[in-house]
């Protein structure tokens, strides 16, 4: 496989030479293709962009399983992490009610997971808001970041699921992120595309049908995830030439150089809780 498996516990993804949005989103989508249940994404610095997700997602149904909360300030981000159990409980109530009204749902593709309980938690740029807030002293910022990491570790253990995090910088401030992580993936940009290395995984080649190497683009990630979707029985969504391009979504380029419209519904849904405010 060309993408690593996400194991239970906190996985730190370090991307060399950029934010690594396509690889981060591809790991999330690949995990959802293999496991039932929704993903809960606490976003910072615009990693949960609908444009790139729409370009690489093999099915719009996957996007409906991603619930996003955005923290634009330190306390919004911390509050979103603390309120995540409330969002999970609300999601479980809604999904079980819908499943009961619709009768028996589709068979599970993974006997160890449920379509109602979380499959993954994502928290990219975990350090971004805590290092950027000029109103916080260094000690206070470190304390809030440590509490955020402790909450995420509790969720990973309590729900028995992976928690995928990234960090903006590698320095003394983010050393606690590496310390708390159970697994570590490193992604470096090479001439052929991103190369991912982990404890039990290493990207070696990017094969295509004619035996040549493939330069990694959004079209590459889309084709890779489409193949995964076919493997697990999810019908890929293929846009037709007559499909209009929704405002703000844009277009994608296939492996053959054909420009196609990228269509997708907006991501569901930022969670709110009484007293948290601003999300």
UniProtKB/TrEMBL annotation:
Disordered as annotated region, ranges: 97-117, 233-256
| Biased segments, Low complexity type | 245-254
Q: InterPro entries recorded for this chain?
A: P-loop_NTPase (IPR027417)
Highest taxon of the lineage:
Archaea
Query: What protein name applies here?
Result: Uncharacterized protein
């Amino acid at each position: 496989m060309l993408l690593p498996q996400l194991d239970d516990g906190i996985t730190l993804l370090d991307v060399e030479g950029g934010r690594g949005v396509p690889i981060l989103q591809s790991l999330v989508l690949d995990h959802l293709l293999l496991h039932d249940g929704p993903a809960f994404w606490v976003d910072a610095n615009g990693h949960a962009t609908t444009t790139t997700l729409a370009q690489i997602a093999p099915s719009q149904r996957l996007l409906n399983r991603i619930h996003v909360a955005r923290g634009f300030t330190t306390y919004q981000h911390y509050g979103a992490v603390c309120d995540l159990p409330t969002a999970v409980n609300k999601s479980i109530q809604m999904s079980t009610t819908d499943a009961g009204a619709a009768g028996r749902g589709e068979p599970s593709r993974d006997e160890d997971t449920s379509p109602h309980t979380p499959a993954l938690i994502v928290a990219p740029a975990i350090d971004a808001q805590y290092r950027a807030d000029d109103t916080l002293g260094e000690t206070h910022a470190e304390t809030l970041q440590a509490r955020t990491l402790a909450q995420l570790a509790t969720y990973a253990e309590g729900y028995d699921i992976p928690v995928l995090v990234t960090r903006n910088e590698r320095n003394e401030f983010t050393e606690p992120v590496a310390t708390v992580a159970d697994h570590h993936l490193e992604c470096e940009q090479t001439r052929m595309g991103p190369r991912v290395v982990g404890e039990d995984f290493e990207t070696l080649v990017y094969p295509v049908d004619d035996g040549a190497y493939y330069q990694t683009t959004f079209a590459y990630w889309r084709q890779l995830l489409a193949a995964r979707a076919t493997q697990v029985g999810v019908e890929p969504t293929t846009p037709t030439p007559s499909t209009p391009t929704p405002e703000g979504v844009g277009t994608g380029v296939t492996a053959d150089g054909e420009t196609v419209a990228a269509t997708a519904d907006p991501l569901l849904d930022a969670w709110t809780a009484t007293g948290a405010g601003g999300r």
